[in-house]
Amino acid sequence: MQRNPQLAFVVDIIIGAACYFGIMLSVHLITGAPLHPKTPLDAIKFYKLTFPKSLLIWWIGIAFTGGIAALFNPFRGFDKIHGTARYAKEKDIKKMGLRNDSGVILGLKSGKWLRSLEARDTRSVTVVAPPRTGKTAGIIIPSILTTTSSFIALDIKGEIYDLTHFWRSQFSEVIRFAPAENGSMKWNPLSSKELPTSWTDIEVHISRICETLFPLPEKSTHWMEAARRIFRFWALYLINMNGETSCAEILKNVLTGDSQGAVEAALLDDNLPERIRLEGNMIIDMGDREYKDVFSTFNTQMDIFLDPRVAENTSDSDFSLSDLRKKRISVYLVVSDEDSPRLKKLLTVFLEYAANVYFRKQPDDDELTVMIYLDEFKRLGKIDKVKEIPALGAGYRLGVVFVVQTVAQLNDVYGEDGAKIFFGTTSYHVYFTQTEESSAEKISKTIGHKTVRTRSVSGKLLEVRNKTEGETGIPLIRANDIMSMSKREVLILAQNNFKRPIKAKSALWFKDQNLRKAVEWRPQEATE
Predict the structure, then answer these.
(1) Cα(36)–Cα(47) distance, rounded to whole angstroms?
(2) What pTM value is reported for the model?
(3) What is the pLDDT of residue 208?
(4) Which helix (H) or strand (E) holds 331?
């Protein structure tokens, strides 16, 4: 209903008069006093502070009813039909669950950290931050320094490891898995530490790895499917023989001598599981030309394991991903810029397997929360299993922080519908200043409009003027305002509260005295 101050005043007068008449009538009915405007005043003088209980109840009821009627006067209100967006206040922030003692640090408001839920109802976060805006320094590093849960962090260039691993080593085992570097810790998805216990589950595990190492193209899938068959055969055969294997060992067997003849020789064993025999028979049934093309496809997809450092670092496992539930472990996936394209599939295998491990069962009360920090995760391409974490992870105490440079990056990798899933299932969105207008426009539209009062005056200078009041809607924050934010500013949106954005500061670690001390801390032996 349209706001009308004059009519609102008239309605208030009517409500007040009705209340007074009600009080006058109550005195008349209860005491028998004449129905007269002075009756309530005479009753007050007569009874002073010793009103009859029945009269007191009447008066309280009439006053309450009148107050409610005045409060909801339809002509007084500011109906906000054009938008209800406004910036969050402290009570809104608490309602959003952002004043926690632990969890991912999203920003700084009123001198206190804004932190997502972590313990029993783990939440996920999407961060949209162009290059050099401080998303690593303002979110990932502060969060790792101030939480004690296990985590996995995609660490491009090794910056996160360099700044946090000494501090984490006080209470957590530290794993630096850098597949392309000498001296890295080792991890092998086909080691006995990572293989399931049942043979059927092992078959499923191998098939999942195949799907990542040998992605099917949109057309002409035959060669890739046949290459998967070669991998499945040798993986299952070697696990059946030795209890474990590795990608480098599989590649070695395929590249050594007559690999098709080697499959035929392996099938002479009458005790092989049926799946191995089925895969092997389909391989030896290939003609020479077909096998040559499949062989070439296989080698192309597996050539990363010809790198002796990658082969060595994936030959065994120094840790098991399931251990992150049992004890505090900090896992850094360290990859250089130049190596990230060729290591993409290996890292995808790691992350997809991690998601599968943590989704096997809901954790017991004494098991740990696991967080996954994916800085610049667009580099990895499409990872469907990781995309499922925000929707399912809360009940499994598994959370993920996705970091992208623009909204368009998610569209490029996952499509527009896939990008909507990320923003629809992550509980919190953190936006740094934007450099692309399209991203800024989407953020502005997500937040929505606020309703503002307008006033216009019509008529000539010496004539009677008409004053008109109304409301209109304008964006709470415009796209150009988002693009003009300083690097220290962030906008935080909470699920189901997008119209209550939080204007906050980035919690840059080097601006906080305690975090600086944590980064600079070294064990005594490191300083001697």
Answers:
(1) 17
(2) 0.82
(3) 95
(4) strand 329-335
